Amino acid sequence: MKELELKYGCNPNQKPSRIYMGDGGELPIEVLCGRPGYINFLDAFNGWQLVSELKKASGLPAATSFKHVSPAGAAVGIPLTETLAKIYWVDDLGELSPLACAYARARGADRMSSFGDFIALSDVCDVDTARLIKREVSDGVIAPGYEPEALDILKQKKKGNYNIIQIDPDYVPAQLEHKEVFGITFEQGRNELNIDRDFFSNVVTENKEIPDAAKLDLAISMITLKYTQSNSVCYVKDGQAIGIGAGQQSRIHCTRLAGQKADNWWLRQSPKVMGLQFRDGIGRADRDNAIDLYIGEEYMDVLADGAWENTFRVKPEVFTRGEKRAWLDRLQGVSLGSDAFFPFGDNIERAYKSGVKYVAQPGGSVRDDNVIAACNKHDMAMAFTGIRLFHH
């Protein structure tokens, strides 16, 4: 297949639309089900690159959940704790395969943002992963292959119209990339930067200790940022992104946005949230929405008389600001990556509130000394990579 006609481009009024190989060659993909659109393919191809690099860096199966050409979550296949299985709504599925664990983590980190995602998997999709995908609201999936039973399960989604793409894992793109804006062609070399644990050797803080597990988390962070619309920062804990801030013009706003997502991920594991008693028949998305309101500042939207009865069997107690802060203070050992330098120490101060211990960023700001001093104040270890990772 040399080209594939699409229904429309980014928006329904943008026609005609297609994908094709500029050299006239064969496309490295096969659509097994559905009719993926323009944005679906953007998510699929960016997601595939991300999970391929995560697997290369970690040696573990990897998955990502993409929305609007940025990852909402990314993770490697580390087994789930009992708590994570519960807050990701997969505790009823039994022991999951490593690939399914990776997707449960990628989807579960920010379930609000992952609603209606496009999934990328580093490995052949197995039955466990297909069962998990089948029950989530999702637009499609790309993988290097599918077990026959897994493919049958996925083809049942969306009345047989779920987008399923198989990609040739041996495909190697051309070294030069092109795109057009306003009728003008842009050309650049592909970002082939290899990111692994050795990427973080230039530690510039008084604390020089970055354990191997933290180096893997930092690698996950930086690889994720490589495919996230800039400006961007990414918080990672135990092999999964827990907060991604994408496409913000100010870096402190990225850090705050991603930090709030990381905080929400941790707050969902608190006894207050784990003990919520939902009404029978409440769907996962409605539970996610209710939890997001409950742990936020607009909690009365879900706790007011006449409102809580629609969601809960028992009216929850207010999760006070003091209780939330006390629980957040227990979050430790988080890794934080930034796609460009931190211009001010305020980013470090915000990161500290979300349990960040390890930081990676390019460095090169005129205020590097201020940022280093902020890290030293909180006994953080920070590595300068010397490499910017903008993605547009």
Describe it.
With 392 residues, this protein is an alpha/beta fold. The chain folds into 3 domains: 3-172, AICAR transformylase, duplication domain (Cytidine Deaminase, domain 2); 191-267 and 328-384, AICAR transformylase, duplication domain (Cytidine Deaminase, domain 2), CATH 3.40.140; 271-318, no CATH class. Helices cover 34% and strands 21% of the residues. The protein has 14 helices and 15 strands. α3 packs parallel to α5.
SSE order, one letter for each helix or strand: EEEHEEHHHEHEHEEEHEEHHHHHEHEHE
User: What do the pLDDT scores average to?
Assistant: 95
CATH hierarchy, class of the largest domain = Alpha Beta
Q: Which architecture of the largest domain would the CATH scheme give at its second level?
A: 3-Layer(aba) Sandwich
Number of domains: 3
Q: What strand line-up does the widest sheet have?
A: 3-8-7-6-4-5
Categorize the overall geometry.
globular
CATH topology of the largest domain, which one?
Cytidine Deaminase, domain 2
Low-confidence stretches: none
Q: Largest sheet, if any?
A: 6 strands, mixed
Task: Compute the CA-based radius of gyration.
Answer: 21 Å
What share of the residues lie within helices? 25-40%
CATH level-four homologous superfamily name of the largest domain: AICAR transformylase, duplication domain
Count of helical regions = 14
Quaternary structure classification: single chain
- Please indicate the percent range of residues in DSSP E strands (runs of 2 or more): 15-25%
N-C termini distance:
28 Å
